[in-house]
Amino acid sequence: IPKAEAPGPLRGWRALVTSGPTHEPIDPVRYIANRSSGKQGHAIAGALARLGASVTLVSGPTREPDPDGVAMVHVESARDMLAACQDALPVDVAVCAAAVADWRVRAMSSQKLKKEGGQLPALELAENPDILATLSRPGRMRPGLVVGFAAETEKVVAHARAKLARKGCDWIVANDVSPSSGTFGGTSNTVHLLRGDTLEDWPPLSKEEVAQRLAAAIADHLVGTGA
Ligand code: CTP
Ligand code: CA
User: Fold this and answer.
1) Does the complex come out with an ipTM higher than 0.90?
2) What is the DSSP letter of 226?
3) Which of 50, 31, 190 is nearest to 109 (CA)?
4) Tens digit of pLDDT for each residue in 165-214?
5) Mutation to probe ligand 1, out of 22, 104, 132 (largest number of atoms < 8 A from CB)
6) Does the C-beta of 135 come closer than 6 Å to ligand 1?
7) Is residue 34 flagged as an active site residue?
8) Cis link prior to 90 (omega < 30° from 0)?
9) Does the model's pTM come out above 0.90?
């Protein structure tokens, strides 16, 4: 249910944001997950809402508080995240910031796996749906603007370009997570915004600043705010 929209350039525009990790169950007490705080995705959802957009935030489990003024959907697995995203359509812009687990266990055990006689359980994996690629697929329900993220440790821009083409999204925020970038464990983020063929290098920024700048770029693209 969209919340009352704040006045702002994105008033009347709808946005979908994914955030956090996904948890893929192994059995009732164990799961596979990515490391993700959800800070970046939550900050983007909050920044879009402050510009007046009607925002649905679909998030995996995080310790982040729900941002003010967004319609929150809490999910666990990648498949649940995809279903929640599809339920939120149509939107004008989708931003996929979640660290989605690439694989799930093909058949979750309904009972807790036990250490029996020193035998190791074999986990058969299956590939999860790609939410960004699915939302980017041409069709009536495709958001007008689809933005992905790419965290890379080397050849950051080259890998991000390849990812943008592979996923079919419009923009990619490429995040340099190499040890020399100081991203991990630090407060600043070195990102590059790829809009189709156009590359913009951003200075080191906090996740909140990255969110504000990205939200401003989205508003400029959708309504021409001149940001
Ligand atoms: N993504 C997604 N669904 C997935 C996997 C990734 O929506 N199942 C999105 C992420 O939210 C991010 C982008 O795709 O916006 C890139 O994720 P990344 O893990 O870097 O890409 P992958 O295609 O999974 O490639 P890699 O092998 O590098 O993990
Ligand atoms: Ca991945």
Assistant:
1) yes
2) -
3) 31
4) 999 999 999 999 887 776 665 678 899 999 998 999 999 999 999 999 99
5) 132
6) no
7) yes
8) yes
9) yes
Q: CB within 8 A of 177, min separation 6: which ones?
A: 151, 152, 153, 183, 184
Tell which phi-psi region holds residue 216, choosing left (phi > 0), alpha (psi between -120 and 50) or beta.
alpha
Give helix 39-50 / helix 207-223 axis angle, nearest 10°: 40
Is 130 known to sit in a ligand binding site?
yes
- Per-residue pLDDT reduced to its tens digit, 105-161: 999 999 999 998 888 889 999 999 999 999 999 999 999 999 999 999 999 999 999
Question: In terms of Cα–Cα distance, which of 46, 214, 27 is closest to 113?
Answer: 27
Residue among 156, 163, 191 whose CB has most ligand 1 atoms within 8 A, to mutate: 163
Instruction: Please indicate if the annotation marks 68 as binding a ligand.
Output: no
